[in-house]
Amino acid sequence: MSTPLPTIVIRPTPRISAIRLVLAIFAGLVALFLGLLVLLLIGIETGPIALLLGLLVATIPVPIYVALVLWIDRYEAEPLWMLATAFFWGALIATFFAFLLNTSTAGIVSVFTNAKAAEAFAAVISAPIVEESGKALILFIFFFWKKDEFDGVIDGIVYASLAALGFAMTENILYYGRAFGGGSLPVTFVIRGFFAPFSHPLFTSLTGIGLGLSRQSTNTAVKILAPIVGLMMAIFMHSLWNGSAVLSGLLFVLIYLVVMIPAFIIMLVVIGFALRREGQVVREHLVIDLDRGFLTPEEYKELGSIMGRMGSSYNAFSRSGMKGWRARRRFNQLASELAFHRNRVARGVYSANQDVLEQETAYLHALQGLINELRGR
């Protein structure tokens, strides 16, 4: 018999203040304006037909890559609004400032040297610094502002990849538009859309990993240095990638085979270890619920592994259709949120004035309702 939950009155979540709502709308409009301005500048360079075609081709593979990134986040899915913010930050805001600063620095360098040197400087020096810093800014905002939604390496990779995919999408509109004018759109699409779609996510994920390690660690040096090292590595890898493309096609292929593909494989290994850590967090912080009978051994085992979660969702769908599947998915999500909440409490992430006990009890009451539904009570 499970231990009864303590009776507590859960205060309703306060509504978003009018000022915060106005600020959010204003920020969204500013981001939209900057994105439209970028499209206008691209259209001026490529022409309206090439712009529209580039926009179409650039967006075709994006849903596939976004779905792959979201699949990584198996244990504690991040809020949809934060995922969307990361993507559109990269697509609208980071691209605008990258376009502005890269064009400006290239123009300044060309005044003192020549057009070829300016192009090389923009690609190898300016673009890596400006673009990686621009994409990383939203990660640092999330890291300091939403501590309860940035728990470790997986979160860093997911947010970074979405910001990078948004940036790459807008950047590809320009490249595809130019290629259409030069008659090389199919080749450009194959290279950028299939052989090198992971480049931007790979670079920016290094910053995300640094922030994730900082969040997980209790070592002061790691907490301070990991994000800095991650950003520097992102800039270096981006510079190496662009530099190889500028210098020669043969060097580009060599760097792709010797550096980028192994780096991508290492990234997959890092994701594997990070997912294993998240599974350990879930098992460690839900064992108390198993011991007191709140969770059955089967439920506990399923919650602690990716395959167990997938299997439980499938079984719920087989028994009760979409309603059962949604309930089980919600159960998995809330159980993970409870585990990570306890983990943050144990690591001292929350400030002293936050009522962590009330938040935990709210999770438990919500889970109790889902348990009753799933067990047919």
Mean pLDDT: 88
Beginning-to-end CA distance, first to last residue: 14 Å
Strand content: under 5%
Low-confidence stretches: 4-14
How many E strands? 0
Number of structural units classed as domains? 2
Folded structure, characterized:
This protein has two domains: 19-247, no CATH class; 280-374, no CATH class. It has helices spanning 18-46, 48-59, 62-72, 80-112, 115-145, 153-182, 185-195, 199-216, 220-247, 249-291, 297-303, 306-346, 356-374. Residues 4-14 have low confidence and may be disordered. With 377 residues, the chain is an all-alpha fold. The protein is 83% helix and 0% strand. It is elongated and about 75 Å long. Helix 1 packs across helix 2.
